[in-house]
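Homework help board

Subject: predicted structure for assignment chain

Our instructor gave us this sequence and asked us to write out the predicted structure in token form, then describe one feature. I got the tokens but I'm not sure how to describe them. Can anyone check?
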Amino acid sequence: MSANISKINGRDAVATGNGEKPWHKLGITVDGSMTTREAIQLANLDWDTPLVPVCYQVPGREGTFKYGDVNDDGKFIGKRVVLNGATGKPLGVVGAQFVPNPNRQCFGFFDQLLGEGAAKIDTAGALGDGEIVWIQALLKGDEFEVIPGDVIQRRLLLKTGHAGNSNTLAIFTPDRVVCSNTLNVAMKKKDAANQIQIRHSGDVTAKMRMAADLLKHAGIFFDEVAGAFRYLATKQVKQEVLTEYFIDVAGKKGEKLDDLHGRSRNQVIDFQAAHDGTEGGANAIRGTLWGAYNAVTYTTDHTWTDRKQEKYGQREAAKQFFEGGTRTKERAFKTAVELANTLN
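My token output:
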């Protein structure tokens, strides 16, 4: 993920707490946790997102024309471009109804959680040119072990997008301390989903209600996740079953590896390599469904994201990490639990 971190006016847009630098030794590191304001300033996120008209040129004609402008009633019509206020770089094209939401405003409600002592911010940053921004916090509560030495912490990831195509989301993510690998799973029960869309409001009461709702959902989610992870860790699988699982996750359920070609075959090979390797704490959990699931999460978060960066650049890498990888991990988790229920 190192190359996906934004550089804004020559500075890495990332800050981490607790004296650690999990994002490939980039950015500023502080001891202990951060307030929302400190996180935004230290991570170089304290900039506005102004809107400017879309301009275009017609071949064979002189001059530049605006696609959209203010009409006689003072209302904007047409399209506009969202800019990174610190660099002037375009982040996306949006419609007339789009309302920008600068980072300091977007994450301001988080102070309610910090004030109650329910969370501690330990990382913040931006990807690409700043079109995706996040703040992650460690939630108050005991960490838990899936197996001895494999520790899971309870974290809340707040992610927003400035390109006009991404909502602000609160995502519950258990992090494996041994490899800093985000395990972004989705429980299918309605009241235990791992994502909540954030609605922005200046109302203090609304912010308090939102904070309480997040903590309630987080408690339900992590209680179920702890049991599910430990359940997967008890299920030993032979190589044949492991391969079938990886094929299913790749979307080719019932097919044989020798019959797969192209992208699907490469995905299965990547999953198997992660399972058989030594990265991501694989040694202790190899041969279990918990190990198989972790092989998928490691591949999506690291292997595939790095490849996207090398081949297509920052925007596609960020999209892989926050969107494409999430869908694969959700499918991997659901498939692993279903398979575990069929094993003795």
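Reply (TA_rk): Your tokens look well-formed. For the description, you could write something like this. The helical segments are 36-42, 103-106, 111-115, 204-233, 239-249, 262-276, 289-312, 314-340. That's the kind of observation they're looking for.
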